[in-house]
Amino acid sequence: MKTIFEKSNGADGINLTDEPCVLPFIEKNFLREGSIGLPQINELEVMRHYKELSDRNFCIEKGFYPLGSCTMKYNPKVNELLANLEGFVNLHPLFDDESSQGALELMYNLQELLKKITGMDAVSLQPSAGAHGELTGMMIIKKYFEGTNRNKVIIPDSAHGTNPASAKMCGFDIVEIKSNEKGQVDLEALKSVLDDNVAAIMMTNPNTLGIFEENVLEISKLMHDNGSLLYYDGANFNAIMGYTNPKLMGFDVVHLNLHKTMATPHGGGGPGAGPVCVVDKLKSFLPAPVIDFDGQKYFRNYNIKNSIGAVKGFYGNFGVLVKAYAYILMMGKNLKMASENAVLNANYLKEKLKNVLELPYDVPCMHEFVLSAEKLKHEKNISTLNIAKSLMDDNTHPPTVYFPLIVHEAIMIEPTESETKEKLDEFVNIMSKIVNETDTQKILSAPHTTPVKRVDETFAARHPNLCEKL
Ligand SMILES: *Cc1c(COP(=O)(O)O)cnc(C)c1O
Fold this sequence. Notes:
This protein has helices at 4-7, 43-56, 78-83, 86-89, 101-118, 130-144, 162-169, 187-193, 216-225, 246-249, 258-261, 318-331, 335-353, 374-380, 384-393, 421-436, 440-444, 457-462, and strands spanning 122-124, 152-156, 173-177, 198-203, 229-234, 253-256, 276-278, 290-293, 298-301, 369-372, 400-401, 410-413. With 470 residues, it is α/β, with parallel strands linked by helices. The protein has three domains: 1-56, no CATH class; 79-333, Type I PLP-dependent aspartate aminotransferase-like (Major domain) (Aspartate Aminotransferase, domain 2, 3-Layer(aba) Sandwich), CATH 3.40.640; 335-462, Alpha-Beta Complex (Aspartate Aminotransferase, domain 1). The strands form three sheets. Strands 1-7-6-5-4-2-3 form a seven-stranded mixed sheet, with helices on both faces. α10 links the parallel β5 (229-234) and β6 (253-256). α13 packs parallel to α16. The two termini are 14 Å apart. The structure holds pyridoxal-5'-phosphate (PLP). Pyridoxal-5'-phosphate (PLP) binds at residues 69-70, 129-131, 160, 162, 204, 233, 235-236, 257, 272, 274. Residues 69-70, 129-131, 160, 162, 204, 233, 235-236, 257, 272, 274 line the site of pyridoxal-5'-phosphate.
């Protein structure tokens, strides 16, 4: 497909500087001379170009999207409508508190709801993604331990890759600990690395294998007895929402991914929100300002004693916060049902698919589970990558592959709460068809029906130049 620049055919558009109504308002020294090389093409061709590009894209509205850990669920469109209300869209962040009472009230109420959902005592809505929330949380822990020798952070080998990256960016040394045969944190391994230099452990529960850490209370006791803190990666909150919370499990800092759990379509780098929630003793370290209420007025409170400072221009991605607020209010008590369905759907698929591929950890899962194609690779030379590519021929987005690293030929499947039983059964049939395909060559050269066929991913990763002609 040609780029819009290659399609440029010299078609004339409007030259704004020729317009008598525009020119007088632009001062001469601001006028550019000559062309800046924008494509010249008529409006209909522009529309066709971008429509074709969007048709090539895959989205939840097109088909099943079981991308593990990413929660690619359906997000009701009414939330978009609400976030686009004129009063929200046209509100400038430099307006004073007095003129922004509605927006501040919404943010304050959202903070209160997130406190209830996580069990925590205080919230910052500033971070704009999950990884950004992690960084913020770890900066808080760093500042809390300022002046001590606590420079180590323990991270299980099943952790999301952003965890060690965030801790490292804050200047911590990472200590990795192994999972046991149940796919959970190995208590003996944990005890063996605990010492006076440990600031915190970063974990998620359920972990990235989709397994609930049954020793979490013992882990939090061990950490607190050691004078250390516990960080909870709450990116996949649809696994536990309404049933339990990180406070009950003994955690001190949590981030949420509102764009995963609370109704903002994501992927492709769109705006997100990764609020950080903390226990009382860390409240004075939150990024300033937090949104407060004095009984009469809502206001931006900059008076945060030990604040790590601001982590985002202004106060967070406001549109995402509006969507999250609308979603939580709309769901009400049914938030619990979202988790119930996410877990039910995952367990249903797991039970069906363990007859198709191997299930390395055969225990009840939470919102997701991890299969392995190791046997298939041995027997037919068909790898996880080939299965992923073949799924695209059946209008299905590939699951997360080769993650977590502790499972060979891993396929990580998260069906989410928004899918029907029919859709899950259809997916099982597609997976069986691929695994049992006798024409191995067909699987090895998939996909066949997509606009772009098999790409050389290693080359693409090593030469990230989209314009290069091969
Ligand atoms: C998605 C995810 C993250 C990162 O969130 P981003 O918003 O992509 O930065 C971190 N941890 C876990 C477990 C996740 O699933």
